């Protein structure tokens, strides 16, 4: 169900669960963690997701892997590893999405430029309204290179978070840049959100890059202010 989706990619969710296991002493420093097969069964995810989670923690020095040996805890991670400095999320429960448009198009040149795609190349666009308890909270346009969009085109009507599904195809983000500003609802956006034209919206533009720093998504999401929470945490 869409209300079970999370903002973070699936492998990051599993990585954070591993971090908490170490921080809570369930997995102790110098000791082996459960095997890949055990983790797959425990978290009900693919082997690719488990390996990506482990690889991420190995790169951060938290876990240690050696050929032919069990993966061990190398050090206890700090709190910042599972608590990012910028936290934002939609407010409400029973989250869902309604697809307005899902197609491959030649247009949207600005989005293609942010995806490092030439003007003549097509791009996949998903236009959706995000809802909470059946009430619209945001209007969203998401743009993907066609090969990436093809992998999620069949689940855009049910997946609140598309990156959780991209993770199952071994497509993970390595960098996200967001720009937050204010805008006024157009007549079209107001009609979709059930508000008056000209009302203020929180406007978030996001560019996401994957492996090798290749752009995999550009999105623009416009939230009704009362349905969105944005918080910055710096320090302990």
Account of the 3D structure:
This protein is α+β, with helices and mostly antiparallel strands and 236 residues long. It has two domains: 2-83, Orthogonal Bundle (Arc Repressor Mutant, subunit A), CATH 1.10.10.10; 87-232, Chorismate lyase. Helices cover 25% and strands 32% of the residues. The protein has seven helices and ten strands. Strands 4-5-6-9-8-7 form a six-stranded antiparallel beta sheet. It has a two-stranded antiparallel ribbon with strand order 1-2. Strands 3-10 form a two-stranded antiparallel ribbon. It starts with 9 loop residues before the first helix and ends with a strand. The model is unreliable at 1-6 (pLDDT under 50). Residues 8-76 form the HTH gntR-type domain. This is GntR family transcriptional regulator.
């Amino acid at each position: 169900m869409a209300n079970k989706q999370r903002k973070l990619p699936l492998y990051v969710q599993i990585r954070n669960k591993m971090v908490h296991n170490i921080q809570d002493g369930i997995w102790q420093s110098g000791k082996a963690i459960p095997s890949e097969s055990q983790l797959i069964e425990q978290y009900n995810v693919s082997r690719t997701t488990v390996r990506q989670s482990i690889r991420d923690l190995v790169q951060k020095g938290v876990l240690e892997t050696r050929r032919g040996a069990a993966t061990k805890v190398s050090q206890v991670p700090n709190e910042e590893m599972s608590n990012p400095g910028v936290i934002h999320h939609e407010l409400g429960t029973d989250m869902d999405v309604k697809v307005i448009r899902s197609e491959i198009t030649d247009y949207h040149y600005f989005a293609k430029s942010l995806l490092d795609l030439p003007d003549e190349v097509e791009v996949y666009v998903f236009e959706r309204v995000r809802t909470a308890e059946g009430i619209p909270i945001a209007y969203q346009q998401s743009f993907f290179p066609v090969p990436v969009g093809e992998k999620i085109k069949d689940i855009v009507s049910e997946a609140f978070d598309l990156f959780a599904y991209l993770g199952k195809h071994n497509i993970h983000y390595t960098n996200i840049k967001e720009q937050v500003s204010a805008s006024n609802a157009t007549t079209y956006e107001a009609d979709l959100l059930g508000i008056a034209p000209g009302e203020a919206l929180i406007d978030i533009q996001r560019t996401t890059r994957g492996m090798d720093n290749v752009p995999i998504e550009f999105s623009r999401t416009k939230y009704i202010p009362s349905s969105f929470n944005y918080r910055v945490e710096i320090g302990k």
